[in-house]
Amino acid sequence: xxxxxxxxxxxxxxxxxxxxxxxxxxxxxxxxxxxxxxxxxxxxxxxxxxxxxxxxxxxxxxxxxxxxxxxxxxxxxxxxxxxxxxxxxxxxxxxxxxxxxxxxxxxxxxxxxxx
Amino acid sequence: xxxxxxxxxxxxxxxxxxxxxxxxxxxxxxxxxxxxxxxxxxxxxxxxxxxxxxxxxxxxxxxxxxxxxxxxxxxxxxxxxxxxxxxxxxxxxxxxxxxxxxxxxxxxxxxxxxxxxxxxxxxxxxxxxxxxxxxxxxxxxxxxxxxxxxxxxxxxxxxxxxxx
Amino acid sequence: xxxxxxxxxxxxxxxxxxxxxxxxxxxxxxxxxxxxxxxxxxxxxxxxxxxxxxxxxxxxxxxxxxxxxxxxxxxxxxxxxxxxxxxxxxxxxxxxxxxxxxxxxxxxxxxxxxxxxxxxxxxxxxxxxxxxxxxxxxxxxxxxxxxxxxxxxxxxxxxxxxxxxxxxxxxxxxxxxxxxxxxxxxxxxxxxxxxxxxxxxxxxxxxxxxxxxxxxxxxxxxxxxxxxxxxxxxxxxxxxxxxxxxxxxxxxxxxxxxxxxxxxxxxxxxxxxxxxxxxxxxxxxxxxxxxxxxxxxxxxxxxxxxxxxxxxxxxxxxxxxxxxxxxxxxxxxxxxxxxxxxxxxxxxxxxxxxxxxxxxxxxxxxxxxxxxxxxxxxxxxxxxxxxxxxxxxxxxxxxxxxxxxxxxxxxxxxxxxxxxxxxxxxxxxxxxxxxxxxxxxxxxxxxxxxxxxxxxxxxxxxxxxxxxxxxxxxxxxxxxxxxxxxxxxxxxxxxxxxxxxxxxxxxxxxxxxxxxxxxxxxxxxxxx
Amino acid sequence: xxxxxxxxxxxxxxxxxxxxxxxxxxxxxxxxxxxxxxxxxxxxxxxxxxxxxxxxxxxxxxxxxxxxxxxxxxxxxxxxxxxxxxxxxxxxxxxxxxxxxxxxxxxxxxxxxxxxxxx
Lengths: 115, 164, 528, 119
What we know:
Chain B is mainly alpha-helical.
């Protein structure tokens, strides 16, 4: 059972993130929701990389037994780096939206015809 | 953003070199210990962000310009791609491959072979990898510091706009 | 000379991505010297990239699949150790890469004059080159995680470019919506990739395709992949970001955005036909293929109908073309869905019926035509905006008197996008109509009716923008500068060439792409 | 000598039809010539610099240029008016709210998931 707890956390994080994106009106909260989804996916990747009783894949003095491939960690790291860039871009766009609309309510930021 | 109290400024001055050195250590030892260009770069950039918070964006904008940081950033990115291109260096023969580690075991820079068995880590190994780590580190330092700096100065501008 | 050419072809998969990447970061440094040198430099970089793409495409169309492994010398991988980054190019990749190579060069020539008045152009060109690199990387890669990374590079660069007119509230909100949609789509893509990795310990598309056994988890992954990539490709009802983004971005950026949308569509085709293809079409599961095909057909019909009807109603030039672009994407999707629904199982492997194969050809052919037609129309819209500083159809009028060449280019684009002979759009739509008529006549009827409505839509634009009396407020409007005319001219020439000689194009380029789409086994064999 | 030209003029065959722009172009040009000849047979009654060149609106005075031009929103007014019930639904769908965009994505994913699981 304990083995499944990370997966439950993954599903919970993704659902919480989706809930925030779909039902929250504040743009900052929507951004936070996306970060939640990202955390869930990253946690999922990390969880997949776990092998019981395995060692780090340093070949020169291996004690033997199974090694766990460090690929998921590399993937997660890449995903985090991309996440930082996306987060920075989203927040700076939110700053600009606030400058134009003087509000962060998603229902009021709907575009429309050019003035 | 204006600066904070004198206590904060002093303590930032004390802590800054240690954080900086730690970050640079992570960058340079990326091929030996956990870490690498991004992680170390993020640590160094957080040191810079600490300075930003303590001394204020107005003070720091006098010392350093956005264009300088963006040049630094593109130099980091260019050198990364150039190191990747170095793999093609064996011209006109199909042994060269993009991203090939040409410096490994070559006895040039970072070119020593790793000795077999458990031993103390030798920093002078792994060929192109440490060089790429340094390039990535440079880019990450410049980029994250630039993001934080621009956002800090943007909030400054918004506040000024509201005051008008 | 031949040696150099061989060397370039051998390394071209890497160079195609690396050259624009290097150029992107060099642009910032070169921009310090002067704007003219920077513009020439960017044009040279994109021209070199396009040249490499053409060389590679030529090689692939004559010699078959080409693989390139980064940092390693052997081109194949053992199935147990499949973690190296690998580019694999078959007919389909090469076909889409040609489109992705044409669009940026046109956009950059166009923006020489179009963007002249703006500041921050160093970053503009950097981002366009990054977008090009990301787009080509998405198309050429044979690795799923790599696909995700390039998708994110493309999304970030394009979101920043959509917000280029920072002083306009609409551009900023469109960019925000685009980045939110891209981030969510890409994260679900990553989730699906993680599902694959957890099951098969592989990230390589060919290895996954070889091992796939269509378990319950694979079904979830398929659903997530289809939904995420369809959203990125602008399929109704997940299309709402597209008119926002296309309509508010500068016209030169929109042209490259079309390429990124098509790259996502390519990803969708790759997932359905290659990753799942091996299982779906070699094991007796034609029922799944049928259901998948019917689902895709439903989405496609909805896409065409809603795209066309919404386009008819719009009063903003660029937004209208954006909805028309959605309808055009629906046509490709319709053809592919129709082909998918005709899989029949015989003996050990499933085969697609003759009309299904024709539909596939039409769909693939239409990808190329759509990119060119819609791209040309967006460039015309940009030219009108440049000359009259206005995009609203209610305020424009009588521009044909002052802008002769732009009007001619618009007429070419109009004829092509609504499928009038002898433009390229007619050839591909004819194939789609005829093949879907044999699969189900209703589909063909819907397709033809919507095509007529598309013509009506653009006749409205033609009337309200270019015809009518000479309005006094536009009396000072002049023809746009040469660089913009050259950019429109390049696309118009390709459109007319394909329109006049469709068979050359279909035989030499489209057929290998359509065959590659059906042949998952050879894609797998290229690596293992 | 003209071998290079041969593949260019080949007919595009679909499995139930064919399409050759060259043939179409020839037919088009011939039709154009015939129409042009017939047009040339007409009378030349048009005279420059007379009342014939002025705008004639049943004897009413000519409006300003701005009012003479029908703006884009009024083209196909009848069509959009007749299909108002449909357009109302479409407008309800295109709210422009980012949350709704994501909601559609979730809905489509859910429908696909249900269908795939049932099979």
